[in-house]
Amino acid sequence: MDGPLSVRTINELHYYLTVTACNECGKGPRVVESIEPVSPGSVVRLARTSCNHCHAQKSIEFVSEFNLIQQPPESETINPTDQPSRVIDLGQWLSLFYLLIEVAAQELKPAESRRISYRAALCLAEALKFYSGDDELPPESAFFTDDTRTAFHRYPEKFARQKLRDMRSKLPALDLMARRVARDEESRSRKRWWQIWR
């Protein structure tokens, strides 16, 4: 890859690292240890990452198009534009969706389960950005890796737009999920002083 990685937000960088295999062990995911400017005043930032599996270190230069508000639900934003991701393809967004839905189902704390479900819904929304017009199947350009391209050719029905819409219809509306996440955060931050040890 020539030049810094171009992401919409730092959240997109985190998702990118989740779906990108480690160069050393082929597993992962890689997690961000720290982020700092490449040089004073530079828009290019350096993310120091490590592999969760083999702990190999790797630094990634990147540019983030948008800065996020720190409080949820705005802090969960991945891509505030209608354009599809330039670094995570359709198949990878669907993998993230399935992964997060499974994690949310196993989460015992209701507020955290709602937050993870919201993240899953945001990933599915990113997947849907790859479809244009009335096309039921995505274009070939929606796939960036050999693995996802092969999966599309073998199982095109899994990438049908209506299938994704059907999955989306089983979840609450995004704005409702966002309000619930915001309410959970407000409830957590307004904990009364005599409850701080609970």
Structural account:
This protein has 198 residues and is of the alpha+beta class. Helices cover 40% and strands 13% of the residues. It contains 6 helices and 4 strands, in the order βαβββααααα. A 4-stranded mixed β-sheet has the order 1-4-3-2, covered by helices on one side. β2 and β3 form a beta hairpin. α2 runs antiparallel to α3 and α3 runs antiparallel to α6.
Name the helicity range.
40-55%
| Strand content bin | 5-15%
Mean pLDDT: 92
Main beta-sheet strand count, sense and barrel state: 4 strands, mixed
Shape annotation: globular
> What's the gyration radius in Å?
18 Å
- Sequence stretches where pLDDT stays below 50 over 5 or more residues: 193-198
Query: What is the number of strand segments?
Result: 4
| Structural class estimated from helices and strands | alpha+beta
Q: What is the chain-wise order of helices and strands?
A: EHEEEHHHHH
Q: What is the topology, as strand order, of the major beta sheet?
A: 1-4-3-2
Helix tally? 6
Distance between the termini: 49 Å
